[in-house]
Design brief:
The chain is an alpha+beta fold. It has 2 domains: about 120 residues; about 100 residues, Transferase(Phosphotransferase), domain 1, CATH 1.10.510.10. The chain is built from 6 helices and 13 strands. The strands form 3 sheets. Strands 1, 2, 3, 4, 5, 6, 7 and 8 form an 8-stranded antiparallel sheet that branches. Strands 9-11-12 form a 3-stranded antiparallel sheet. Strands 10-13 form a two-stranded antiparallel ribbon. Helix 4 crosses helix 6. The longest helix has 17 residues. Magnesium ion binds next to loops. The site of magnesium ion has 4 residues, from loops.
Length: about 260
């Protein structure tokens, strides 16, 4: 994604803040204030509906009839010399929130099943920065991991999951963490993909198989202690059958 990244569309707004900046979709958020990135702001108003477990903490917020997810960037694992939410500053365009926001925005605009990205912010201090992102909350029954904990899925759902992944791959989206927590299902077995932190647009290559292998390992891990009907070879083959159907989507990678 080279070139001027603000040329995403006229509704994409950039605002400088003391010690940082925010990026947002002006057509969806007219009244965005920096306090929106602070969970305490919503807590004080009693508008936090819950939290999701992940690397960091994602807060589900409901305000004025709208539902969204506020996520603070946190790294997994331990980094001895940095606190867990600080990243090395390498310029605004390299920040996690701006990179993820912009990629998600392009995917959403291309009609892919992703949450609408609402806003992103970084706060820069010396050599480090912290970041936050707000996305529209998807109306789902849960992640693939949560659904498998509840019961077995139909083979049609596995096919749908494969089709969904294929659409992203046809656009050149290499997902950095394709696992059962980042695929969400709604009531009609529609499949969404989330969490584009550190994802890249790439030309077709072996990374596609790498993504699938990662998902397979995740499925094996989360279903290991569950009843045997939750994940087996037939399910995986259903997913691959869906994956092998061409999506007809055009790559976002220039020159392919
Ligand atoms: N837009 C969304 N709609 C519904 N749930 C979401 C949304 N974004 C995140 N979540 C929930 O929050 C969890 C963590 O978010 P995610 O973007 O995967 O960040 P990370 O894995 O880095 O913590 C997800 O697994 C999912 O359950
Ligand atoms: Mg995740």
């Amino acid at each position: 994604m080279a070139g001027n990244k603000w040329s995403l569309g006229s509704e994409v707004k950039h605002a400088t803040l003391p010690g940082g900046a925010m990026l947002y979709d002006g057509s969806r958020l007219g009244n965005l204030a920096p306090s929106w990135f602070d969970p305490n702001h919503w807590r004080a108003r009693g508008e936090i509906e819950g939290t999701a477990r992940g690397r960091g903490s994602a807060h589900y917020i409901k305000s004025a009839g709208r539902q969204f997810v506020l996520r603070h960037y946190h790294r997994g694992g331990l980094v001895a010399y940095l606190s867990r939410d600080k990243y090395f500053w390498r310029g605004e365009q390299e920040t996690r929130p701006f990179a993820e926001w912009q990629l998600t925005y392009r995917l959403h605009r291309a009609g892919l099943p992703v949450p609408a990205p609402l806003a992103a912010r970084y706060q820069h201090d010396g050599m480090t920065y912290t970041g936050d992102i707000i996305t529209e909350r998807l109306n789902t029954v849960g992640s693939l991991a949560e659904c498998l904990a509840q019961g077995a899925l139909s083979i049609l759902t596995w096919i749908e999951i494969g089709r969904c992944i294929r659409r992203f791959h046809d656009l050149g989206v290499c997902h950095a963490d394709l696992n059962a927590h980042n695929l969400l299902l709604n009531e009609d077995a529609k499949v969404y993909l989330i969490d584009f932190d550190q994802c890249q647009l790439r030309r077709s290559g072996l990374w596609r198989d790498g993504n699938l292998v990662r998902l397979r390992r995740s499925l094996e891990k989360i279903t290991y202690a569950l009843p045997r009907d939750r994940f087996g070879e037939a399910d995986w083959h259903g997913l691959l059958d869906g994956y092998r159907q061409t999506s007809g989507d055009q790559s976002l990678v220039a020159g392919t």
